[in-house]
Design goal:
The complex is a heterodimer of chains A (about 190) and B (about 300). Chain A is mainly α and about 190 residues long. Chain A has eleven helices and no strands. Chain A folds into two domains: about 25-120, Fumarate Reductase Iron-sulfur Protein, Chain B, domain 2; about 125-190, no CATH class. Helices cover about 50% and strands about 0% of the residues of chain A. Chain A is elongated and about 80 Å long. Chain B is about 45% helix and about 10% strand. In chain B, the strands form two sheets. Chain B has a four-stranded parallel beta sheet. The mean pLDDT of chain B is about 95. The chains are: A mainly alpha (about 190), B alpha/beta (about 300).
């Protein structure tokens, strides 16, 4: 619910009505967090709609990048972070390329996703990728059919990556553990089951 | 080692070596043929996936990508790679860390735990841009390497997103209607064709393929409709993730939506391999979900 201005003069109150004067449980710090993480001046968005007009996800869903920009400025943190549409951005960067204010809406969305993750809100497939990389170094690891194909091509069964040199895996795990990423991925996935 | 003048540490990524190894084999052979040696970047990992990792925690994305760059720094080499997604991670993080001291210090604090340090001494290139660059290869030299022109084949180019966009953080010029990849295709004797909404995304990125497959496929489907409209015999791209989305995606589109296209999907290095005389077996084209045979009949 928006806060009412409560002007005594009813005529003036009607004339100057603003349905979203501000929402009491909004968070004015939210846009600052988005800007810091996304390295964008997202608060300068003038709602032209070039972003939504350029978006391949918009015509086939209710995802509206322009709406997320506006809500972020209004501090509607709760609405943004719990909206399943937040995860429909393919990060194609068309909006970022075309934004006349150069506000990198894609990076604003990425920042909002980072903030959602801090509250354990994240689709499972993102966390499964983390688990695979922790285990193998690859988000898409090798398999037996592919190993056979590699040998037919004269390549080694394992590529010259962590697959062939697993001694590099502890370093990768150390980085992921530094951010407690694997631990959090395991926990959130287990809680969702 | 053939001792070519241009040598790069070859960053493989995941999908090329682990799903379409023909791209890896082709990249090494076709590059050698035009004067580029690709050397193993031992111990590299996933770039890591910019959609998945960037969405969860950008700091982890910076640190993980930086580790891959440092491996090349230790070889005293620049990186060459074959995937737009990898380019987003490796090129962009390298660029950011070179120009943002605060970010670099933060990453180096983490890398210190594994006795590594990002120094900023390596550059990162996509093989496609090295092929286009006349100082390295250039269209003429590419054309001269062709033994079997792909004459009569109409090819739709899919640029993908993360190589050229965001344009201000790249160096490829126009991102609305670029034509440089069409030049690369024409150099092989094929006919590049224009289609509606050429620069649209394949639909897979940002974690959307894993989050909402039908949504991702509907974007892919739109592109396939537009390519079919102009009679494309094949689509070519420089991103194995886009390749996976178009190739396996066509099977999934048939299952989910009932639409069928049968448009073969070839990474530019596979196309270049065919033009330079590599056989379909040399490229493991049988691993493709959509048969490449109709295209091969046209050119062989």
């Amino acid at each position: 619910m928006a806060v009412k201005k409560d002007y005594k003069d009813q005529k003036l109150a009607e004339k100057l009505r603003d349905r979203k004067y501000y929402i009491p449980d909004s968070n004015p710090e939210f846009i600052k967090d988005v800007e810091k993480i996304g390295q964008t001046a997202a608060h300068m968005c003038y709602q032209c709609g070039t972003c939504t007009g350029s978006c391949p996800s918009a015509p086939r869903s209710s995802y509206r990048i322009r709406l997320f920009m506006r809500k972020a400025i209004l501090g509607l943190e709760e609405e943004i972070l719990t909206d399943p549409d937040l995860w429909l951005c393919t990060t194609c960067y068309s909006c970022t390329d075309r934004c006349p204010r150069d506000l990198a809406p894609t990076d604003a969305i990425m920042a909002m996703r980072n903030l959602a993750f801090k509250r354990d809100i994240v689709p499972r497939n993102f966390l499964q990728t983390v688990q695979l990389i922790y285990k193998t170094g690859h988000g898409v690891p090798n398999n037996d059919a592919n190993r056979a194909a590699r040998k037919r091509l004269g390549l080694e069964a394992e590529p010259e990556t962590t697959h062939k040199y697993p001694e590099y895996l502890p370093g990768i795990r150390r980085i992921l553990d530094h951010y407690r990423l694997k631990e959090n991925a395991d926990r959130i996935l287990a809680e969702g089951e | 080692m053939s001792g070519n003048k241009h040598q790069y540490a070859f960053f493989l990524g995941c999908i090329a070596p682990n799903r379409y190894p023909g791209i890896e084999a082709a990249a090494i052979q076709t590059s050698k043929n035009v004067g580029i040696d690709l050397l193993p970047l031992k111990g590299a990992s996933c770039c890591p996936a910019p959609g998945a990792f960037g969405s969860i925690d950008l700091n982890v994305w910076y640190a993980m990508a930086a580790r891959n760059v440092v491996l090349a720094e230790q070889m005293k080499m620049d990186i060459a790679l074959i995937c737009n997604g990898c380019y987003k991670s490796i090129y962009e993080v390298n660029h950011k860390l070179k120009h943002n001291d605060e970010l670099r210090d933060g990453v180096n604090e983490v890398l210190k735990e594994i006795d590594m340090e990002f120094k900023g001494t390596a550059d990162v290139w996509h093989l496609a841009e090295l092929y286009y660059d006349p100082k390295i290869v250039g269209v003429k030299k590419l054309a001269d390497s062709v033994k079997r022109p792909l004459a009569g084949a109409k090819i739709a180019v899919h640029y993908g997103c993360h190589l050229m966009k965001p344009g201000k953080e790249r160096h490829f010029g126009d991102t609305e209607n670029p034509m440089w990849m069409e030049e690369l295709v024409a150099a092989l004797g094929a006919e590049p064709v224009q289609y509606r909404n050429k620069m649209q995304c394949c639909g897979a990125g940002g974690g959307v393929r894993g989050y909402d497959l039908a949504h991702a496929l509907d974007i892919t489907n739109e592109k396939l409709i537009n390519m079919q409209e102009v009679g494309a015999d094949a689509v070519t791209e420089v991103c194995p993730f886009c390749q996976l989305q178009f190739d396996r995606g066509q099977i999934e589109i048939k299952e989910k939506f009932g639409a069928e296209y049968g448009i073969p999907v070839l990474h530019y290095n596979e196309l270049l391999g065919l033009a330079q005389g590599m056989s379909p077996d040399d490229l493991a084209l049988d691993l493709h979900a959509i048969s490449v045979d109709p295209f091969l009949k046209k050119i062989l």
